[in-house]
Amino acid sequence: MTVLLTGATSFIGSSVLSALKARGHEVRVLVRTDDKAAAIAAEGVSAVVGDITDLDLLSRLVHESDGVIHTASPGDASSAQVDADLVDVVTSRLQGTSKPYVHTGGVWVFGDGDDLTEEGAVHPPALTSWRVEVERTVRESGVRTTIVAPGIVYGHGKGIPALLVGPDNIRLVGDGSQHWTTVHVDDLADLYVKAFEAGARDEYYLGVSGHNPTVRDLGEAAAAATGAPVVEESADESRARLGEAFADALLLDQAAIGAHAKETLGWIPSRPSLADEFRSGAYTS
Q1: What pTM did the predictor assign?
Q2: What InterPro entries does the record tag this protein with (predicted)?
């Protein structure tokens, strides 16, 4: 199958690209620059230079594909409109076909909870409140859609957890008592591919491994590798340092086991936990 993948050079998207290739899929990616296109082409992947905001180009590429996986995001104030426009184009182009669409959500939309599931009520922080309406559009489209809602994504020394490790100390977000529900980026990529291949209609998966450490647990694991002191701060200090919206998302207390994806798709997360990654020094080099 020819899969149209957005965000192929991003943290999540690059791992999804590798997982798709490993499964023998032909992949076509949309990248912003000639340099990125050349790097992708060197890996034997078809690349088109353009932007997901070019809706005419996007429409053509969706039509020419056998399905779509969307991992791209501006990560700024334009994210809501970009995602809404993309979903409108993708779902309209896939109407009346059996082509699958896998959309990226995020576990933060469920708010605080010690046993989050796909059926839970949503209580999003301000940072991701826009996702609720976009996901509703995806689910009501009538297309073969799956939403993957990742937890805190880590791996290879990258992702949000890297912000805990500073040059002189390990700085927690708040006092570190909140739990983060986590997933290794390569395990998450396997979930995307399994979801795409299943091609279900109106499916939803929490992309979480089942490891739910406290931020303090993570800080102490990092400190064991670096010898740096662990510094906690008040919630207001975290908001001042990171920005209110981002800090409030990171201060959510969340735990989940991801049973639905494991039971339905046979997804088995197998990479090291985030605490193990910190202890190994993966986030200190």
Answers
A1: 0.97
A2: Epimerase_deHydtase (IPR001509), NAD(P)-bd_dom_sf (IPR036291), NAD(P)-dependent_oxidoreduct (IPR051783)
